[in-house]
Amino acid sequence: MSAEPIVRAESLRKSFRGPPRGLGKGRAELRAVDGVSLGIIQGETLGLVGESGCGKSTLGRLLLRLYKPTSGNVYFEGQDITELSQTALRPIRRDMQIIFQDPYSSLNPRMTVEAAIAEPLRVHRLVSSKTETQQRVASLLERVGLRPEHMRRYPHEFSGGQRQRIGIARALAVSPSFIVADEPVSALDVSIQAQIVNLLRDLQEELGLSYLFIAHNLQIVEYVSHRVAVMYLGRVVELATSEQIYESPRHPYTQALLSAVPEPDPSDRKKRILLTGDVPSPLDPPAGCAFHPRCPIAQKGLCDREIPELRPLAQGHHAACHLAQ
Predict the structure, then answer these.
(1) R_g of the chain computed on alpha carbons
(2) Which of 245, 303, 288 is nearest to 50 (CA)?
(3) How many whole angstroms separate alpha carbon 12 and alpha carbon 24?
(4) Would you state the pLDDT for residue 271?
(5) Do 136 and 185 form a contact (C-beta atoms < 8 A)?
(6) pLDDT in tens, 220-270
(7) Which residues contact 185 (CB under 8 A, 6 or more apart)?
(8) Residue from 225, 323, 279, 237 nearest 53 by CA
(9) Of 66, 63, 87, which is closest to residue 77 (Cα–Cα)?
(10) Sheet of 71-76, strands arranged across
């Protein structure tokens, strides 16, 4: 595993126009991603966790330049791609792909499996004949655990797990080096989730892929990730190795998330950290640390005034908390 990041974000921000504030007051600003800096090393999986609406998917799309940042920079293999035009981005897109959350809506129901997987091959002019196209599609289907004859079928003829395998084959078609897996197993039965996760791990080992693995399931993230980033209201509040996050979380939000993970052993009881209130609206975030209205250790006059920066606490362990030790 190379120590150089294959993809890197610096002070990345993305805002969207919100609803009107009122007559003559303009529109509110929704800060979906608010000053994120991180890197993903070649060959590693960075897990990204947090509650719904915290900006995980938006961050993934920013790293792929599917969204243009409001401010900040995105670097891919050392090149700043923040301001590149769509034409200049086209050859880079071969190296950056995405696996979508919902295998039911991410495939065109009117396209056969062959057409769906072959589309990126044709767009990037990687095949020159129908025979070569069919050979490539057959090889990709076998790589993800399906049979070559499946290429003649339509998406509705497959189960959810099989459709997600087709989506993975489509992402692999152009031989990428970086893949954003955006909740790739959350829409699948629990019995199928492990198969897809193990497939992604096997492909990473075989092809040297780098992943941003977005998920809600903290146990899956622990299993699949080398490092984990925890997001809250558009900001990364903790970043560390998987072992550090799960054995000694430092940020109170991370501690609360992990306390909710069910234990398989009923005799192994742990103290549940219950958070009060709801997640604040990104249209009107609180002053200071965004987590302070729900934080069990917040200090008045500090946490409600100053925005904490992600700072090192130990080797490879960073947290954005004034009181984290």
Answers:
(1) 21
(2) 245
(3) 30
(4) 75
(5) no
(6) 999 999 999 999 999 999 999 999 999 999 999 999 999 888 776 666 666
(7) 164, 192, 193, 196, 197, 215, 217, 220
(8) 279
(9) 63
(10) 27-41, 5-20, 71-76, 79-80
Inform me whether the pLDDT recorded for 88 exceeds 80: yes
227 φ, ψ (degrees, to nearest 5): -130, 160
Length of the chain: 325
The two tokens of residue 311 are 């700072």
Residue 239 has phi, psi (to 5 degrees) of -145, 120
How many Å separate Cα 306 from the centre of its chain?
28
Ranking 26-35, 79-88, 95-104 by mean pLDDT, the lowest is 26-35
**3-class DSSP assignment, residue 307:** coil
| Alpha carbons 83 and 72: distance in angstroms, whole number | 10
244 within 8 A of 314, measured Cβ to Cβ: yes
Structure tokens at 233: 């209201």
- Which residue blocks in the chain are alpha helix, DSSP H? 56-63, 86-93, 113-123, 130-143, 160-172, 190-207, 218-224, 242-247, 252-259
CA distance 78 to 8: 8
Write out pLDDT tens, residues 136-167: 999 999 999 999 999 999 999 999 999 999 99
